[in-house]
Amino acid sequence: MRTSIAATRDARAGHIPGAVNIPGEDLAASRERFPPVPKAPIVLYGDDAPQVARQLVDWGYRAVRLLPMRYADWAAAGNPVASGPGAEAIVYDPNPKPRAIVDAEGKVRLVGR
Q1: Which of 9, 13, 19, 37 could form a disulfide with 2 if both were Cys (CB 3.0 to 4.6 A apart)?
Q2: Lowest mean pLDDT among 9-23, 32-46, 72-86
Q3: Could you tell me which residue ranges the Rhodanese domain spans (predicted)?
Q4: How many separate domains does the chain show?
Q5: Which residue range forms the structural domain that includes residue 95?
Q6: Longest pairwise C-alpha distance within the chain
Q7: The domain spanning residue 25 has which CATH number?
Q8: What is the pTM of this model?
């Protein structure tokens, strides 16, 4: 699952398809949106992502990762992007395909080169 940690206006301007936008200051109020599975993989990106990652680890999540690039670099590399509101719900798939994401239309796309 991808979680955009950015101001809502920034996320609406551009985000990774399927990402759920949760501004860092709203994290505590959004705790129940995360799956109750400590091994659920969570990929974060955005300015507050490192601080949010620490909080998620404190909550017991063991597979928290940071996207190793800025959103602008993701888009410049030709990876899928979307604008407008992000996904509403965080969805945990216990059997995801490696290096695959689900876009806004529900299509599985490979990322990276």
Answers
A1: 19
A2: 9-23
A3: 10-83
A4: 1
A5: 2-110
A6: 36
A7: 3.40.250.10
A8: 0.74
